[in-house]
Every structure is written in C-alpha cells, then in structure tokens.
Write a structure and sequence with these properties.
This protein has 318 residues and is α/β, with parallel strands linked by helices. 35% of the residues lie in helices and 19% in strands. It contains 11 helices and 16 strands. The chain has helices at residues 31-39, 81-94, 109-120, 141-144, 147-160, 176-186, 224-236, 253-262, 272-276, 280-295, 306-309; strands at 9-11, 14-16, 20-22, 45-46, 63-66, 69-72, 100-104, 126-130, 164-169, 190-193, 197-200, 202-203, 208-209, 215-219, 244-247, 264-269. The strands form 4 sheets. It has an 8-stranded parallel sheet. Strands 5-6-14-11 form a 4-stranded antiparallel sheet, with no helix packed on it. α7 runs parallel beside α8 (253-262) and α8 crosses α10 (280-295). The longest helix is centred in the C-terminal third of the chain and has 16 residues, at 280-295. The radius of gyration is 19 Å and the shape is globular. Bound molecules: ligand RRO. The site of ligand RRO has 16 residues, from loops.
Length: 318
C-alpha cells in the first residue's frame, strides 16, 4: 500500500500540518468561531483585520450573494486590538498547537508601527499586513496600490514585530511583482495574493447599488482565475523569493492543487465556507491528499511550482 503523502508545509516561519488556512474576514470574529474553523479542518487561522481603535464598520446592507461569488463592504468592523486580545488568548488556551496569524489594518505608517509593537506581546506566530482592503479610503489598497506604500507599511510592522510578517497584496496595482519586491524589501517573510476585487451590484428595480456603500469586495469562485494568475505572475517572475500564500475563490481540493502548482506554498480559504460549510477545510485537505495519491506524488510540497517547471509546454508523461 502506498504511504500517505506528507501534507506539512512551512510558510514564512509558520509550520502548518497541511496547506489549507482560514482566510481573514470569515469565521474569525471570536475565539469560538475560529475554533469552529479548526474543528472544520483549518491548519491555521488568520484573524479578522484588526485596527488600533474600535471600528463600527459600514451600514447595512454590507453583503450580497452573486451567481459566481459574493460582494462585501464590511468596512473593517472590529473591537480594536486591545479588546481583540482576549479572543486570541482564549483561542490560544484552547488550541495551543494551531498557528494564529493576526491580520493588521492601519490607516497610516504610524498606526502600522504601533500595531506591530502591540502584536509583539500577543501569542501569535505571524501577522498579515492588510495592504489590500477594497472598501476603505485610507488603509488597504491605498497602501497596496504602489510599491512605496507597500514598503513603508511592511517596514513599519517589521520594526516592532520579530516573528513572521506576511504581506497581503492587492491585484489593484500596476505590477504585483513590484509590490511583492517592495514587501520583501520592507522585511516580509511571505506574500499573500490576493484580497477581494473591487466590484458592484445594482438592483435594477430600485435603480441603486445593492450595498449601502455602493462598491464592495468581490470574492468566491468568480475571482479564481485572476487570483491564480497573480500567484503565477509572482512565482514565474524569478524576482520574488518569499513563499506565496494563494487566496481567491479556492473551493475544492483541485482548486488548491492549481494554486500549489502555480507556485503557492499554502492557500487561504474564506468564501467557500458558505458554499460547502465549515468542514470545507477538511474536505479540501482530503481532496488534495486524494489527488496526490492518485497521481503518485509523495508530498504537497513536491507539487509547489510544478506547472511553472512544465512551462513553456513540455510533453507531459514523456
Ligand atoms: O472589512 C472589509 O470590508 C474587508 C476587508 Br478589511 C478586506 O481586507 N477585504 C474585504 O473584502 N473586506
């Protein structure tokens, strides 16, 4: 009988029992909801994006389901880092073996620096610098859209935080490879690609946008080819050294395999929880494992970047 494939991977200083992580923005408001995701099979959890001060978020409606995914305009609702600390501590007490990646949302370099310093004292393995929220004027994409913004935010967090620093990039920038290189210069240990994409839905009968904020962030199946292409751009550039975490529309094990083959070392899954339930993390892990067995691979790590090696087209199976 064939041995089971090795599923462990290492990403930017964080060891994962398998490559499927809970993405920010879904099931991560409380310790209890993050524990549900781990019970559903997540190898690690990324928290909701947390700011220095409490934020109420945007008025309703903030969420709408589309045929090919979802639109949200939550507006970074969160209790602020001081209050959120108890959720992290509670999670850590219950699940000490599961890595926590704290997503940080700042609106200035100074805020990012303060958030990095605050995170240092928390029981988290890594932070994820949110450079890519599409729903706000000042933070998020305002940093991610140009390399200088990426560099200064990552650098600011890096100054205060001694463990893993992941940079969550946006596709809304002229050149994602330049953004990634700026993140590396700022001290990022890993790159996460991508956040949601700016989108809008209009109610034709009301003749107005469905979301109260007008535009929102588009996630789910519909964005998968675009997210995958961004991972591909990063991995094929030959200019980026940090490991890549793929994110965007991953719903099945084969979706995850595509991201690994494009060069991602791990994947983040969020919207698929709505499609397949909270057990989606186990389902995706098992589907990856079944694929590896079927195709005779010995580990998840072995397929990372495989499609890049086979491109331009080499005869498969020769
Ligand atoms: O809270 C949000 O509106 C939000 C954030 Br911080 C983000 O990074 N991405 C997104 O789609 N929504």
């Amino acid at each position: 009988m064939m041995e089971r494939p090795v599923m462990e991977v290492e990403v930017g200083g964080v060891w994962l029992s398998h490559p499927v992580i809970l993405a920010s923005g879904v099931l991560n408001e409380t310790a209890a909801s993050m524990m549900r995701a781990v019970e559903g099979g997540a190898a690690a959890v990324v928290t909701k994006s947390i700011s220095l001060a409490e934020r109420e978020g945007h008025p309703n409606p903030t969420f709408v389901e589309l045929r090919t995914g979802y639109l949200n305009s939550m507006g970074v609702p969160n209790p602020g880092i001081e209050h959120y600390t108890k959720e992290i501590e509670r999670f850590r007490e219950e699940m000490p073996q599961v890595p926590v990646i704290l997503s940080l949302y700042g609106e200035s370099v100074e805020e990012f620096e303060e958030l990095g310093r605050a995170a240092r004292t928390l029981p988290v393995e890594a932070v994820e610098v949110n450079l890519s929220c599409p729903n706000v004027e000042e933070g998020g994409i305002a940093f991610g859209k140009d390399p200088d913004g990426v560099y200064s935010a990552v650098r600011a967090v890096r100054r205060g935080f001694p463990r893993g620093v992941w940079a969550k990039l946006t596709a809304h920038c002229p050149d994602i490879v330049e953004a990634a290189k700026a993140a590396e210069r700022g001290g990022a240990d890993a790159l996460v690609a991508i956040n949601t994409l700016k989108g809008i839905a209009i109610d034709p009968y009301l003749a107005m946008p469905v979301l109260a904020s007008g535009t929102g962030g588009y996630s789910g199946e519909g964005i998968k080819p675009l997210a995958l292409e961004k991972v591909w751009e990063l991995a094929s550039s030959g200019e980026v050294e940090a490991p890549i975490v793929g994110s965007g529309g991953i719903t099945t094990g084969l979706d995850a395999v595509e991201f690994l083959m494009a060069g991602a070392a791990a994947v983040e899954v969020g919207s698929a929880v709505r499609r397949r339930g909270v057990g989606v993390f186990s389902q995706i892990r098992e589907e990856i494992e079944a694929f590896l067995v079927e195709e005779g691979y010995g580990s998840a790590g072995e397929i990372v970047g495989l499609a890049l090696e086979r491109y331009p087209h080499e005869e498969v199976g020769e």
